[in-house]
Give the backbone structure.
Amino acid sequence: MTHKDVHFSFPAQRAYGILLRMAVSGAAAAYQLPLDMLEDLRTAAEEALDFLLSTEERADARVLCDLMSDEEGSVTLELRLDGRSGAPALSPDAAVTAEILKTIMNDVALFADANGGTRARMTLRRVK
């Protein structure tokens, strides 16, 4: 992690998708990313949020977001749901979502953790 890491959370509701887009845009500006990378990150963030909320949209759950940049300029975005418990399971749409995300991101992992929370972790590498 670096001093430019960004961590925030918001209610797990689709209406907060604009907040996610704005935060990704702000982080991308701080990371001095080119416009095409910014657009790719925002698109991936929206797609991942839709995936996370496809199974459940609850007032008591929160989306936790981490944006991290490394010294080479790669950016990793992780979204996960908090406030859930139960048997971990990915939705049937996980494979489709992963394929969509792989068209814009270099590395994509969609998984469910032991607490029943769904996660999306994606990395976009800066092209030099």
